[in-house]
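Make up an example, fold above all:
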Amino acid sequence: MERAGWLRRVGPWVGIGTSPAAMMMGGGVAQGLEGATLLAVLGAGTVALTLLALAQGLLGQRTGLPLTALVAGALGERASRRTASIVMLAMMLGWFGLNAGVGGSALARLIDAPEALGIVLFSAAILAVVWFGIGALSLSALVAGIATVVLAVYGLDRAFAHTEVTLSGANTATDPTGVLAGVAIVVGYGAAFALRTPDFTHDLGRQRQVVWCALAGLCAPLAGFAVAGAALQAATGTWDLADVLLELGSPGFAYAFLALGFTGSVLTNLWSGALSLSHAAPRVAHRPALVLVALAGGALAVAGFSRLMLPYLTLMALAAPGLVVVCWMHALWGRRASSGWSPAGLGAWMLGVGAGVSLHLAGSWLALPAAVVVPALVYGLAGRAGGEGEREEERFLDPTVEERAS
């Protein structure tokens, strides 16, 4: 299988790190914290999220397998098709609906068209790019991410031209929250992407290439955008740079910032959503799956589903970290993949999701940590009790194994 260089796969990481939603996340944390504590929480959360995404990305590179194959190993092939792939498809459809709704609406205002037409055009453009494969996806996401950074620098320069840059003030810590709760917000922002990183690393040639993707593509821009969102919140009372630009009389830059900023995210949503659909329904080939996901996600966007998305996406994010843990523990322990159902893997993941959702509904900041720790404990206890078959360390460590996916 031909190997790609990291610059040809860094685009999806950049798309998450430079999304306007990263500013929203930083501004959201600033509403609960301020000053040095706010900066430390954003830094710790960014590092934690980067490590989570890096670990999963390294697993994909090391095995040469995309996410669906890794999950099938941990949960069992049949269980993966009937549970995880459906959950991941729902997750990607939801994110597509949110991101395409915002990006498409911005495009509509940029070209002075009806909102629905802007969303349709935006979704069609995303489909056209992804149609040509992961190479075109990554390059487009990288270009859009760089353009978003340029627009963000311009906007921030205008926003802070006559305002002091600070992380403390009347607009911060208005709804005080705990340090760990703030870290959980940052991790939750990118938890779904962290789960999907094998889709963009399984054809990389070296582990250090995954590290570069994580550091240069995700960690650095995400830290910058999160801190910028927090500073905007502190200085202006809003994390939304587009709103600030509109108030400053730069509507074109504001709408271009949103349309370009959400491009990378929607590209990855469509790619991974199609992979999940094809795995859940093997008769649906990849390109028809792309069309179906684009149509369904675009319909959600046109229907205004983004207004109902935040609680939904929060719950979806709780499903991702525990699955990362189970996939890694399965691979490290060298357990044999099952063609049916793996009770230990599936049970550990489901218990983690149940614990996370229950704590979230109870308003506890422990929701995200529980979604990680519970699966690890349950799967670990299952392994000590006897596991699920023979160890296959040599198969896992051998980069020439015949089952490497293309």
